[in-house]
């Protein structure tokens, strides 16, 4: 018996998510935000399109994401993207691995490093500080009940402040939530992410 053929890549990649939720009316702030995405990226990320059925949830998601990933922090933007990719790798989140893998490639200019992070960050050549941050993020994702004072002590010994530890935990926790929503809703990565910064 002949196996059913998979949908054509173009059909799949035009889809935002598996749930049938129609986009709602955006307010002026979100219209401007979507326009800025279009201008800077050439597209509006599907994670935003997926949430646009509910303006309040979309705005909350954007506010939290932008605060965690872009606001002032003791963590660099690259470090925050590393956490996003490592958490997404632990959760096997297709959407976030494709999207944030692309962002990590762009920020670092190092596609080999980004692809290694997607597969297994432990195979990358990392300094002790970065490895401590990512080991903590992985443990918080895979075995959160095991996280204790000894884990915070490792981060402090790696020269992270208590505020940095908060930020590491906040980014890791946000992507655990985001990964689960993307997977549960069947969100599809934008096709543009696959070729970005290669």
Describe this protein's structure.
Helix 5 (77-91) packs antiparallel against helix 6 (94-108) and helix 5 (77-91) packs across helix 10 (162-185). The model has no long low-confidence stretch (mean pLDDT 94). It is built from eleven helices and no strands. The chain has helices at 9-14, 28-41, 46-51, 55-70, 77-91, 94-108, 111-120, 128-142, 149-157, 162-185, 192-195. It has two domains: 23-70, Single alpha-helices involved in coiled-coils or other helix-helix interfaces (Up-down Bundle), CATH 1.20.5; 77-195, AhpD-like, CATH 1.20.1290.10. By secondary structure, it is mostly helical.
Q: What is the number of E strands?
A: 0
CATH architecture of the largest domain: Up-down Bundle
Shape: globular
Helix segment tally: 11
Order of helices and strands: HHHHHHHHHHH
Number of domains: 2
Instruction: Output the CATH class name of the largest domain.
Output: Mainly Alpha
| Biggest sheet character | none
Low-confidence stretches: none
- Taking the alpha carbons of the first and last residues, their distance comes to 39 Å
Briefly say what this structure is.
The chain is built from eleven helices and no strands. The protein has helices spanning 9-14, 28-41, 46-51, 55-70, 77-91, 94-108, 111-120, 128-142, 149-157, 162-185, 192-195. The termini are far apart.
């Amino acid at each position: 018996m002949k196996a059913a053929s998979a949908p054509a890549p173009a059909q799949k990649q035009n889809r935002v998510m598996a749930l049938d939720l129609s986009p709602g009316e955006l307010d002026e702030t979100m219209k401007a935000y979507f326009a800025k995405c279009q201008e800077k990226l050439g597209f509006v990320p599907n994670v935003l399109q997926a949430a646009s059925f509910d303006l309040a949830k979309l705005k909350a998601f954007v506010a939290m994401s932008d605060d965690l990933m872009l606001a002032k922090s003791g963590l660099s933007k690259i470090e925050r993207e590393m956490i996003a990719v490592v958490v997404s790798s632990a959760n096997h989140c297709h959407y976030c691995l494709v999207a944030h893998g692309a962002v990590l490639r762009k920020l670092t200019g190092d596609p080999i490093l980004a692809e290694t992070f997607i597969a297994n960050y432990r195979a990358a050549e990392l300094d002790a500080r970065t490895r401590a941050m990512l080991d903590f993020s992985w443990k918080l994702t895979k075995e959160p009940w095991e996280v204790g004072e000894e884990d915070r002590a490792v981060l402090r010994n790696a020269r992270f402040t208590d505020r940095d530890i908060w930020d590491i935990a906040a980014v890791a926790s946000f992507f655990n939530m985001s990964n689960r929503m993307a997977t549960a809703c069947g969100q599809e990565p934008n096709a543009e992410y696959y070729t970005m910064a290669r």
